[in-house]
Design brief:
Blueprint: H1 2-23, H2 58-62, H3 77-96, H4 100-123, H5 128-142, H6 157-178, H7 185-223, H8 235-249, H9 259-266
Helix pairs in contact: 1-3, 1-4, 3-4, 4-5, 4-8, 5-7, 6-7, 7-8
């Protein structure tokens, strides 16, 4: 029963995340007092959407992905975000459900990364407000409560600062060398947030996961002729996905490296 309820809760939160993804990047409706103000409207006919057409996933299926009034297509992003959030909440509950404080923070952080990922994917922008919210909640919780796995979430100021210096430092260097052509400054800020939350070891893992996933996707797009060498890549979306993967799997790439063997090979004459 608990798993069912957490999944339903995730679907509901996913519906709200869709509102943030849609409204936050738009200056005319992204003022804090307007984020949740006003009922949702069809982007095409601007008619108010009834509550019965706002039920996560089910309404989309019942309406066959079209507006009830004007018949325009509803983006697949809506059920995708809802289902993704529900699934990730389930996995989070399985991994961190024994510690309410840890679970609450993980659910918040995953929700934040979903919003960052989809806004970056759609708009090629990472909003300062989201980065600041991540830092604010992290500072309040990370060092005041004992997390169930300090190897994944940083539990010390020193480790967090080391993570920032590594992750944000590399991205800042790339940003300065390329004069902003390879990545945006928002990517640097997101790297700083992830370095702070995950610490040095986690930052190294997420760094490798980000570029490995980005490399694979880029090659696929080039082969399918869906992108060129100058095509922009939403690096923030890849970083967010890598962070969520590391957070919920705990898979440590560094465990695959035999440091002693590397040192022995290095010393071979």
């Amino acid at each position: 029963m608990a798993y069912f309820l957490i999944f339903i809760f995730g679907l509901a939160i996913g519906s709200f995340l869709n509102v943030l993804i849609l409204r936050l990047p738009k200056p005319e409706i992204s003022k804090y007092r307007h984020i949740a103000a006003g009922r949702s409207k069809c982007p095409n006919c601007r008619r108010v959407i009834g509550w019965y057409d706002n039920i996560p996933v089910l309404s989309f299926l019942f309406l066959s992905g079209r507006c009830r009034r004007c018949g325009s297509k509803i983006s697949w992003q809506y059920p995708l975000v809802e289902l993704l959030t529900g699934f990730l909440f389930l996995v989070s509950f399985q991994a961190y459900g024994t510690n309410p404080i840890s679970l609450g923070f993980i659910l918040f952080f995953i929700s934040l990364l979903i919003v960052i990922a989809f806004i970056d994917f759609n708009e090629f922008i990472i909003l300062d407000a989201l980065i600041l919210a991540g830092f604010a909640i992290s500072v309040l919780l990370i060092f005041n409560f004992q997390f169930s796995n300090c190897r994944i979430i940083s539990c010390s100021v020193t480790d967090s600062l080391s993570g920032i210096l590594f992750f944000a430092g590399i991205f800042l260097l790339l940003f300065l060398i390329s004069k902003g052509k390879w990545l945006g400054f928002g990517d640097v800020k997101l790297a700083a947030l992830l370095g702070f939350i995950f610490g040095l070891e986690g930052a190294v893992n997420i760094f490798y996961l980000t570029f490995f996933a980005g490399f694979i996707i880029a090659i696929m797009l080039l082969v399918l002729k869906r992108a060129g060498l100058k095509t922009k890549i939403q690096l923030g979306s890849f970083m967010s996905a890598a962070a969520i993967s590391f957070l919920l799997s705990g898979f440590n790439l560094l465990d695959l490296i035999d440091a002693e063997l590397i040192l022995r090979l290095w010393n071979i004459k």
